[in-house]
Amino acid sequence: MHTAHPEHPITAIVYPKGSDFEAFLQEITVKLAAQGLRLAGLVQHSRPKPGRTKCDMYLRDLSSGETRAISDDRGPHASGCVLNTGRLLDACEAAEAGLSGQTDLLVLCKFGKTEAEGGGFRSLIARALELSVPVLIGVPEINLVPFREFAAGLFREIELSDLVCDLSAATERLRPAPRPSAEAVAAVA
């Protein structure tokens, strides 16, 4: 396993407000990619829509760069969830295609209601763990209990407030350990 914390291959960033975490995750993935990390996964971009209470939601695939809409336009007075679970599933399948044993880090925007109910990113997380790829995921405080049950002790939690004040330090704290060289692996084998 090539994670800095092999006993905790999942890093959960716990946050109270989604928009703050969304902005943080967008910035941190840019920094990690600039350092040469091979990222896979999905980062959310929400765009306010004038005259609407709900934003349009998009997921950017970190390995392909493709952006997909995952919300439905339910009209100006929509108050419930606007997530289109079929589009979310399509985005997950595309992200899984970009995930391999060569991936340094799987980044996922949220362990949300869909994941708490047994769907969403769960299979993508499981696949990453099968490949020994560490996972970085946002967890809203409201979903912390179902996340803990799902992750079964394979996680560490970091509060978003502990990361946002210094992005450089946060980048280092969230960066997985480097992979051993082929020579090092051969010497051990």
Summarize the entry for a quick read.
This protein is α/β, with parallel strands linked by helices and 189 residues long. It contains seven helices and seven strands, in the order E-H-E-E-E-H-E-H-H-E-H-E-H-H. Strands 4-3-2-5-6-1-7 form a seven-stranded mixed beta sheet.
Structural overview:
- This protein has helices at 18-34, 85-97, 113-116, 122-130, 144-151, 167-174, 182-188; strands spanning 10-15, 39-47, 56-61, 67-69, 105-108, 135-140, 155-159.
- The chain is of the alpha/beta class and 189 residues long.
- Strand 2 and strand 3 (56-61) form a beta hairpin.
- Helix 1 crosses helix 6 (167-174).
- The longest helix is centred in the N-terminal third of the chain and has 17 residues, at 18-34.
- The chain is globular.
- The relative contact order is 0.23.
Low-confidence stretches: 184-189
Give me the CATH fold name.
Answer: Rossmann fold
Looking at CATH, the homologous superfamily is P-loop containing nucleotide triphosphate hydrolases
- Tell me the span between the first and last alpha carbons: 15 Å
Total individual domains:
1
Mean pLDDT: 84
User: Mind telling me the C-alpha Rg?
Assistant: 17 Å
- The class by helix and strand makeup works out as alpha/beta
Molecular shape: globular
Number of helical segments with 4 or more residues? 7
Instruction: Report the sheet with the most strands, covering strand number, pairing sense and barrel closure.
Output: 7 strands, mixed
CATH architecture heading: 3-Layer(aba) Sandwich
Q: Biggest sheet, strands in spatial order? A: 4-3-2-5-6-1-7
Quick one: CATH class?
Answer: Alpha Beta
Kindly estimate the percentage of residues that lie in beta strands according to DSSP: 15-25%
How much helicity do the residues have?
25-40%
How many E strands?
Answer: 7
What order do the SSEs take from the amino end to the carboxyl end, as H and E? EHEEEHEHHEHEHH
